[in-house]
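User: I'm curious what two different proteins look like when written out as structure tokens. Can you demonstrate?

Assistant: Sure. I'll show them one after the other, since each token string lines up with its own sequence. Here's the first protein:
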Amino acid sequence: MRPLDYRDYLVDLLKNTPDVQRVDVIEGGPHPYALTVTTAGSEQRWQIIGQLAEGAKHDTPTAAVNGQPAAWKASPANGPADAWLASVIGAADSPDTRLIEVWSTREGKSSEGVTVFFHNGERAFLRKF
């Protein structure tokens, strides 16, 4: 899913998440396709970066491919921000989503974020800034 489309999807998803008090799109600035989420009394800023499927071009849309929704692990809103966001994405049970990887669980982690792998070969990287 392309970054703009995925950001719009996340805005709708997050607005309907019980722990979320506020969601805003960040327009302009150094972080394109970004949003701000207020949950558990704190603000989180996320930038969405996309990677096309192998052989795909920016001027043509990539076809949606559906499959089994990604497995996910529940995480509270007051826990690690990327684990919480991954659990929100996983709970949506999207048939587009193949795998969700939480960066804070990686060995030698250096930043917080989530990689969403789609069944069509595309990826979305959600980087906390």
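Here's a second, unrelated protein for contrast:
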Amino acid sequence: MTSTTFVPFLGVVLGGLVSTLAQYSLGRASERAEVRRSMRERVEVRRGERVAHLIDFLSAVQEAERVAVDRYHHGASDEEWQARAKQSIDRMWVAQKTIHMLCGSEVNEAARRLAYDVQNVIRKGPGPGEPQDERVWAYIRPHRRAFLDLVRDHLE
């Protein structure tokens, strides 16, 4: 009689143990899936943040290029132009520093080279030759292209 009550009891204990292990395993798998999903979401948010700051930097560079063209192609050099030049250079460098904080060293270095080129062309000019607007863009183009190519590869 003992064996007839012991076998069902053993079945209940084993069934409960298997059920507990299954629930524990499913809980762990669910936790791991949640952690992976959360990490993916953070990566996407961070990527979006980087893209926004990269676009801001490009916008600042474009504005500074226009300042250089105004100076060396259109002959602007009054106080208003000087104030615009200082403001555009400052904005560009602030945007570059944001890239330094958010992006890898290669992207940061490419942004720094581009910013230095733009700053130099505003302060010193693009060099001799005509027309000056094309010389401004030719001076900046190599580092702008390198920056854009590196960012594209970095974001893929």
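A detail about the second structure: The mean pLDDT is 87.
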